């Protein structure tokens, strides 16, 4: 069965080309080809220049898989599967591997759509576990425990979290993994924003390092600013999951694009510099966003994110957020993402902190609010 249409992709399809400032992106400014190639070492430059554009290794280039293991404490290259369709492909493979008709999954909520929209198409059900907005978007472990059913097979989590910027403590995360282990369910940990914690000491361990049944998902899109490569991966010590995902992958992308693999290898070898670049962009935008939204506290309720390139303030104006977003986009060419895309009705909007143009975009929002194109809420 075909899953329900992906609202976020539809939304960007409708608006992306019509606005000047996408102020709600989940990635950071993309790197140019020139910038990336300047980071190549002699070995990767030789690989790039002599690249054979035939099919690649279905599991991923051996050097790329080796470079990916650097993100983990315990993983070997044999336990990494490269996905040529990004993290989106990894999620698709894992949902298909873990869920059958009649099964049940838990999904931390709100969620990136494929984490919950694929389950129903497989004949499974997914129960959302809501993060607590009143409590710094905290994950309630009791809620997870109470939502477990005899047919629960998987728990899909995503920290640092899209769209709230939530990040549990290390202790909370380990307790969550322990709870899943005791319940005999597989944790799929979407870690695509890992490395973008605002306090680097708050970085969580990868789920696949802590628990040999859990799966971690990574990608070049977010922390490295290379979404166009479409290189993602899944990492797990659970051989049954690895084997099944690889069988299925022969029916999706088969192998990643040869140029994308070498470019990803170049980036991973320069990993700390690229992550630092992304963090610099986010951390310079964060105080600007914070002062903008607190200055306009009549119009917005701000909650500081802990990690990642997004925040999720609430619109206080007596206007449905969809209407506010569409009017702002039309009037000022600035795009926010309404929470209705996440099937929410809390009048929130997603702010992207990863684009250097954010300050200019916020100046336009300032003009928009000043022009009283919308009621002031007074
Ligand atoms: C939480 C989460 N997981 C996975 C993805 C998919 O990443 P990609 O499109 O690079 O495959 C995204 C993209 O926004 C995301 O936010």
From TrEMBL:
PANTHER family: AMINOTRANSFERASE FUNCTION, HYPOTHETICAL (EUROFUNG). InterPro entries: Aminotransferase_I/II_large, PyrdxlP-dep_Trfase, PyrdxlP-dep_Trfase_major, PyrdxlP-dep_Trfase_small. This is Aminotransferase class I/II-fold pyridoxal phosphate-dependent enzyme. It comes from Streptomyces hokutonensis. It holds the Pfam family Aminotran_1_2. GO terms for molecular function: transaminase activity. The keyword Disulfide bond does not apply. SUPFAM superfamilies: PLP-dependent transferases. Keywords: Aminotransferase, Transferase. Residues 53-353 form the Aminotransferase class I/classII large domain.
């Amino acid at each position: 069965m075909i899953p329900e249409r992906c609202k976020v992709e539809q939304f960007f399809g409708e608006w992306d080309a019509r606005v000047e400032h996408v102020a709600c992106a989940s990635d950071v400014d993309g790197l140019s080809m020139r910038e990336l190639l300047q980071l190549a070492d002699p070995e990767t430059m030789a690989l790039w220049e002599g690249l054979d554009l035939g099919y690649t290794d279905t599991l991923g280039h051996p050097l790329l898989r080796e470079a990916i293991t650097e993100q983990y404490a315990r993983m070997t290259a044999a336990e990494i599967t490269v996905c040529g369709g990004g993290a989106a492909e990894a999620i698709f493979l894992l949902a298909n591997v873990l869920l059958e008709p009649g099964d049940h999954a838990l999904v931390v909520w709100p969620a990136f759509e494929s984490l919950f929209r694929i389950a129903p198409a497989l004949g499974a059900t997914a129960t959302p576990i809501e993060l607590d907005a009143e409590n710094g978007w905290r994950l309630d472990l009791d809620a997870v425990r109470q939502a477990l059913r005899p047919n629960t097979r998987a728990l899909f989590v995503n920290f640092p979290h899209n769209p709230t910027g939530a990040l549990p403590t290390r202790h909370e995360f380990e307790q969550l993994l322990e709870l899943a282990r005791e319940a005999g369910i597989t944790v799929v940990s979407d870690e695509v924003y890992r490395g973008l914690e605002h306090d680097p000491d708050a970085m969580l361990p990868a789920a696949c390092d802590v628990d040999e049944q859990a799966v971690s998902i990574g990608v070049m899109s977010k922390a490295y600013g290379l979404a166009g490569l479409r290189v993602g991966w899944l990492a797990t010590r659970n051989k049954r999951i690895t084997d099944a995902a690889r069988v299925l992958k022969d029916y999706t992308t088969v192998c990643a694009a040869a140029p994308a693999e070498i470019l990803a290898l170049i980036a991973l070898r320069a990993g700390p510099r690229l992550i630092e670049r992304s963090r610099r962009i986010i951390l310079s935008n964060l105080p600007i966003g914070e002062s903008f939204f607190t200055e306009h506290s009549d119009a917005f309720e701000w909650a500081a994110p802990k990690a990642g390139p997004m925040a999720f303030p609430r619109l206080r104006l007596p206007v449905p957020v969809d209407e506010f977003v569409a009017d702002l986009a039309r009037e000022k060419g600035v795009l926010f993402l309404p929470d209705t895309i996440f099937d929410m009705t809390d009048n929130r909007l997603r702010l992207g902190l990863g684009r250097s143009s954010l300050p200019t975009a916020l100046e336009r929002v300032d003009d928009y609010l000043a022009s009283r194109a919308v009621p002031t809420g007074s």
